[in-house]
Each structure stands twice: as structure tokens, then as C-alpha cells.
Design a protein that fits this description.
- By secondary structure, this protein is of the alpha+beta class.
- It is 70% helix and 8% strand.
- It is built from 9 helices and 4 strands.
- Helix 7 packs antiparallel against helix 8.
- 28% of the residues are buried.
């Protein structure tokens, strides 16, 4: 029996050593990546942000084109050339060259420019919203990575403590002070710790890949996190947060700019319905067969008729379209306001709950769990409590430390959600 027990001990000890040392060997040493550095790199290199930045440049360039007139046209006409001498221009009745220019009615170009500028402003707010979204994702993924790292550290520390307890239990078993059942319980607890460590390592790799992807880096790039994570937890009243959100959230600003854009579109459509456009031109005529005067000129003005019976319907539907877009933009603004206030309320409640839990762990639970474990250790060494009580105390200490960091990470992530809802960093 003792040989079987010793064999199990060796197997378990070998597995634990591999689990504890393999990650440390595989990891490459690198300076810690702080959260502000991760956010900065994501804002600079994230592909989704880059796409919107390029689209903003497209919209800005399009807006700069709007105030320009259309290209002028050169008109060349050869009239009355006889078929018998098709290349003899001196036999033509009229040879002319002229220039044409389309001119929109007064104010239309300005309205087109305003519409294009508003479209660029809407795109700019989409970019700002995407930046806030990416910042929130980075903070959440980074916090998860920090939590996984802390889990690994806690589990390794607990494994070392448990290995010491196993050695002490083995010695007690050799002299008959504890039963073999206590040894098996210790080995089972060690196996459970090893399994949790494997899960924590997998979670760390997953969250490491998420952070790298947000920074547009290779998923396999090793990230070292600091030993502690600072929490910026400003004290702001619900009213102040609502005012900040209504003034700063990019989605709200974009919706307001979209309302302005649709209003300018309506004005342009109304002007297109009421006022004509023009084409002006000047021609030089050369008339080689005219004995009176061979050189003449001609001027022209073409005027569109937007209110003709066969085109007025199109313009009326353009008005209807822009009015519908304006109503949709206003409804979208109301929807975003409602969503913003709801997200603010939810995030505030979560932040408040996480904040209270962190304070509770700092001021009571952590120290109580530590004291309970030490007392159980002393009582076990003096033979006043059973081994199962010591395991429960160790498990409670582990859960208390895990719980503290989980609530700290939850506070950071809920604050990230709150900042995204507000639309700016909270100082």
C-alpha cells in the first residue's frame, strides 16, 4: 500500500511541477505593457479605426469638391459642308467653336457644400464612437488578462502551500497521526488546483490574443502585465454624468449632425423644385460662303424648367424623401438618448456594486480569510482540528483573494462601460 501511495505521490508531484514551471519557461521576458500604452497603441493601429479614418478623409475630400462648378464644355460645329467635298471647310456655311458652362441657381452650390460638410461631420462622429468602443474593448480585455494572470499567481502560490501541507500530512501519516484518507484529500485538492491552473493559463492566452488583436499585433505576442492595476474611480453624481453624456457622446453628436444634414438636403431639394439651372455659352462663327461677313459670334442661355408637368412629380418626391430622412434622423436621436440614459443607469449600478464589493474585500474579507487560514494551520499543527478543516480554510483564502481581484476587474470593466456611455474619459 505504501508503495502505491508513494507512486501516486511521485506522479502528482511531477505533474504539479510541470504545470508550475512550464509556463514560466515558455514565457519570454518583456517589459510590462501598461493599460494606457495598450489604449494608445490600439487607437493608433486598430484596423477598424483605420478604416473609418480613411472614410473620413474620403468624406472630407468630397465636401471640398462640392462648391466647384462642373467642367466647362467646348463645342465645335461644322455646318453645311457639301458631300461632294467633305473635307473642304471653305465650302461650309458655318464653322463654329464655342464654350459652354452649366450654372446652378444662386445658393444651390452652397447648400450642396453644406450637405457634404455635414456628411463629413457625421463620419467624424462615427470615428469618435468607434474609438470609444475600441478603448472600452481594450480595457475589458486587458482587465481579463490581468485577472487571468492574478489567478495563475494565486493558484501557484496555493499549490506551493498545499505541497508543504502534503509533506506534513505524509509525515503525520507515517507515524499514524492522520489517516490515509487525509493524504488522498490533499492530493485531490492538488489535482483540482492543477486543473484550475490549466484553465487560467488558457484564459490568459485567450485574453492575450484579444488584446494583441485590438492593437493589430500578432496574437502570439507575449504581453506582460503589471503586478497591480490602478483604478480611476471618480465620484460623479448621476445628473453630472447625464449632462456629460448628452454633451459628449459621439453617437448623440452624430445624430444631431445627421438632423442638420437632412435639413440642408430638404432646402436643396426645395430649391431644385422651385428654381431653374442655366447653361451659358459663347460661339465664334466663321462663314466662308457668306459674302457680307465671314466672322460672327453668338451667345446662348439655356434654362431648365423644374416645374414642368412631366418633371414636377420627381421634385415633389425628392421633397418627400428628405422630409422622411429628417424625421428618421430625429427619431434616431431620441432612440440614442434613451439608450444612453439606460446604459448610464445600468453602468452606474454595476460600478456602485463593484465598488462596494472591493471595499468589503479590502476592509474585511481578505484579512479575515488570512487570519482564518493561519489559525487553522496552527490548530492543525497542534492536532486540534482535522485536515479537512485546514483544506476548507485554504480554499476560503483562495476564493477570497480571487473574489477581490474579480471585483476589482469588474469595477474597471464597468467603469469602461460607463466611459463609453458618457463618451469621454472620467477624471
Amino acid at each position: 500500500m505504501k508503495k502505491v501511495w508513494l507512486f501516486r505521490k511521485i506522479i502528482f508531484g511531477t505533474l504539479i511541477s510541470v504545470a508550475l514551471t512550464a509556463p514560466a519557461i515558455a514565457a519570454e521576458s518583456s517589459p510590462p505593457l501598461t493599460l494606457p500604452e495598450a489604449v494608445s497603441q490600439a487607437l493608433d493601429k486598430n484596423p477598424e479605426i483605420q478604416v473609418l479614418r480613411q472614410r473620413l478623409q474620403v468624406a472630407s475630400a468630397r465636401a471640398k469638391q462640392a462648391p466647384y462648378l462642373e467642367d466647362p464644355e467646348i463645342a465645335i460645329q461644322l455646318g453645311g459642308i457639301p458631300f461632294s467635298q467633305p473635307v473642304n471647310l471653305d465650302r461650309a456655311f458655318t464653322n463654329s467653336v464655342g464654350i459652354r458652362q452649366k450654372l446652378p441657381f444662386f445658393g444651390k452650390l452652397g447648400l450642396k457644400e453644406k450637405v457634404a460638410l455635414q456628411e463629413a461631420k457625421v463620419m467624424e462622429q462615427e470615428l469618435r464612437a468607434k474609438e470609444r468602443e475600441i478603448i472600452s474593448k481594450v480595457k475589458m480585455a486587458y482587465a481579463d488578462l490581468f485577472m487571468a494572470q492574478k489567478s495563475i499567481e494565486i493558484l501557484r502560490e496555493q499549490s506551493e502551500i498545499l505541497r508543504s501541507l502534503i509533506r506534513a500530512t505524509e509525515a503525520r501519516y507515517q507515524v499514524g497521526r492522520v489517516t490515509q484518507q487525509d493524504v488522498f484529500k490533499a492530493l485531490l485538492e492538488q489535482s483540482e488546483l492543477m486543473n484550475q491552473l490549466i484553465v487560467a493559463e488558457a484564459e490568459r492566452n485567450t485574453n492575450e490574443a484579444k488584446v494583441n488583436a485590438l492593437m493589430n499585433r500578432s496574437p502570439q505576442t507575449t504581453i506582460e502585465v503589471p503586478t497591480d492595476l490602478a483604478v480611476n474611480d471618480p465620484a460623479l453624481s448621476p445628473t453630472s454624468l447625464e449632462d456629460l453624456a448628452l454633451a459628449n457622446r459621439p453617437e448623440l453628436k452624430g445624430a444631431q449632425e445627421d438632423i442638420e444634414r437632412t435639413q440642408r438636403m430638404y432646402e436643396l431639394a426645395d430649391r431644385n423644385r422651385k428654381f431653374p439651372d442655366f447653361m451659358v455659352g459663347w460661339d465664334y462663327w466663321h462663314m466662308p460662303t457668306d459674302n457680307i461677313a465671314t466672322d460672327r459670334y453668338a451667345g446662348m442661355v439655356n434654362i431648365t424648367i423644374p416645374f414642368s408637368p412631366w418633371t414636377i412629380g420627381k421634385h415633389n418626391y425628392e421633397i418627400e424623401e428628405t422630409l422622411a430622412e429628417n424625421r428618421a434622423a430625429k427619431a434616431n436621436l431620441d432612440a440614442i438618448k434613451t439608450m444612453t440614459l439606460r446604459e448610464l443607469a445600468e453602468s452606474q449600478a454595476k460600478v456602485a456594486g463593484a465598488r462596494r464589493s472591493v471595499v468589503l474585500y479590502r476592509e474585511g474579507l481578505l484579512s479575515q480569510a488570512e487570519l482564518s487560514f493561519r489559525a487553522s494551520m496552527a490548530a492543525y499543527q497542534s492536532g486540534r482540528v482535522e485536515f479537512v478543516s485546514l483544506l476548507e480554510a485554504q480554499r476560503a483564502l483562495r476564493e477570497a483573494r480571487m473574489g477581490y481581484f474579480k471585483n476589482l476587474v469588474a469595477l474597471i470593466q464597468n467603469l469602461a462601460d460607463l466611459e463609453r456611455a458618457v463618451g469621454k474619459e472620467l477624471q
